[in-house]
């Protein structure tokens, strides 16, 4: 038995029809019509007006005869049909126009993720966005790295700290590799979020004030690490190796959950001394 590939044109047509027919005209404040509606939902001309396109264009899309809609038109259709975030992403995929990043970058921790960070104790954990802003952390991460509460919010950025904060600069034994990997990730995030002025500003600031950052940024390395190993130098317990994992929540793809674990028995012993003090 063979499985047919998805005909995205026909699925786009069916999806648009199905979502249009689910809408309640009363929710849009549309004037009542003298003629009774023969089909549920909004009429094609009503969706066309809401999306700012012609009725003929909607007809052709719903019949699988139209051209592939542009990202701008897909955005307009998603708004007109009042699609939920997952439905909106599906529509962009069907139109082969998935945006690099259409929503505003995350600047605060999603409440369920903030609770998860706390619940992960005794494992050190923190939540970051794509530009390395630190959005949430637990007590164990504070003991391992730094009390982020002592920093002003604009300076709670892992890249900025690694480059400029004296305590964090000394924390990583192989600091140059950590910085190099971080910059390679940051460049990938920069390309994926060209509209993020805060990220552009951060890169400009670091390029201007830090020769190491400027040199590594100019090499144009691209790398996104989902897991790895780091060697830390802690002032209280000495050196300890950690494994890290970076997890991306499906519903919050711009928030990244970073979790540390002791990498070996010697590090586990140092780990236990640190967290039992």
TrEMBL record:
InterPro entries: Cro/C1-type_HTH, Lambda_DNA-bd_dom_sf, MLTR_LBD. SUPFAM superfamilies: lambda repressor-like DNA-binding domains (SSF47413). Residues 34-88 form the HTH cro/C1-type domain. It comes from the Bacteria. SMART domains: HTH_XRE. Signal peptide: none annotated. GO terms for molecular function: DNA binding. This is Helix-turn-helix domain-containing protein.
């Amino acid at each position: 038995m063979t499985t047919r590939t998805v005909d995205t044109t026909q699925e786009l047509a069916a999806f648009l029809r199905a979502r249009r027919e689910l809408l309640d005209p009363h929710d849009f404040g549309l004037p009542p019509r003298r003629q009774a509606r023969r089909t549920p939902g909004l009429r094609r001309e009503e969706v066309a007006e809401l999306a700012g396109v012609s009725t003929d264009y909607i007809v052709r899309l719903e019949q699988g005869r139209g051209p592939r809609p542009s990202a701008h038109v897909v955005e307009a259709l998603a708004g007109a049909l009042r699609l939920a975030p997952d439905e909106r992403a599906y529509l962009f995929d069907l139109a082969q126009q998935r945006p690099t990043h259409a929503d505003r970058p995350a600047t605060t921790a999603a409440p369920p993720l903030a609770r998860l960070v706390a619940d992960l104790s005794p494992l050190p954990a923190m939540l970051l966005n794509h530009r390395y802003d630190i959005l949430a952390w637990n007590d164990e991460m504070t003991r391992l790295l730094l009390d982020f509460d002592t920093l002003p919010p604009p300076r709670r950025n892992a890249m900025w700290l690694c480059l400029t904060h004296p305590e964090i600069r000394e924390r990583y034994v192989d600091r140059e590799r950590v910085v190099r990997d971080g910059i390679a990730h940051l460049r990938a995030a920069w390309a994926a979020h060209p509209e993020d002025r805060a990220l552009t500003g951060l890169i400009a600031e670091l390029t201007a004030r830090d020769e190491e950052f400027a040199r590594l940024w100019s090499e144009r390395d691209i790398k996104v690490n989902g897991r790895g190993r780091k060697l830390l130098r802690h002032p209280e317990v000495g050196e300890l190796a950690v494994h890290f994992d970076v997890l991306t929540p499906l519903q919050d793809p711009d928030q990244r959950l970073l979790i540390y674990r002791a990498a070996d028995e010697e590090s586990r012993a140092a780990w236990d001394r640190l967290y039992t003090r």
